[in-house]
Amino acid sequence: MWTQRAASLSFLTTNKINNMKKLVLLSIALIATAGLYAQNFSLSGAKPEIKTALGNEKELVNLYTINLPYSAEDIKNALHERLKTEGVKGKKVKNNFYAFKEVQYTHLWDNLCDIYVSVTGNKNSGTINLIISQGYNNYINPYQDSITTEKAFKWLIGVDRVVYDYVHEQALATHLEEEKDIEKTLSKLESEQNKLEKQLDKVENKQRKLEASKTVVDENDLNVDSKQIAKEQKEALKLQKEYNDIQNDLTAVKLKINQTKQDLNQKKRAISEFKQNKK
To answer: Which of 65, 88, 190, 252 is the most buried (most CB within 10 A)?
Structure first.
């Protein structure tokens, strides 16, 4: 009888210890998972998550996801460039997913795997959904594979940086193109200024020649050629009008040049500040 009681007590003690071990391990797992979620914030402050949603076959699956504060189009383009650079090629499949079949992509999985990525959203934000499969729709369960989940979260956080850099580069390219356009405008205006100044010099030379050769009027000279004098006066008025018109055009061009130089300086400062403000 005492032997049976001892055996029962031993069994209960062992069972209690095993349960305590399981509880401890579960607590450690929960703490680790909580730490994983708490530490994984992206450049923009977005946090990768696990959710249940429709997958590439329009069936409910557990997948990795992140919502980023960039347009869906920018996210798609940035992802396309990254994956292309890394030698990963895919094709569009169901439910807005792109499938990358039988790829060796150690950022997410050490062996050959299938990766499914979708990007949805609008001009203000986009959501990336990520599914990893060992083949034949044998999806990795994010809740049961903490190592892969950590890799997936890290990858999604990295995508945030990739998209940020892409958007920054696109915006910088626009700034540089605008700077180039302003420089072209300035160059054309300066050429126009040179052209007008040469035209003005020609008119001034004509005026000097006309002044030097004009008929000198002598009140005592009864043989004054009035027609010649009238002709010279008409020519002088014509040259003066031409001079004034060119001078007006030149003044307008100089004003535009000054404004364009200011625009160019502002654009250069904006580009410098834009580069410095990159995260």
So the answer is: 65
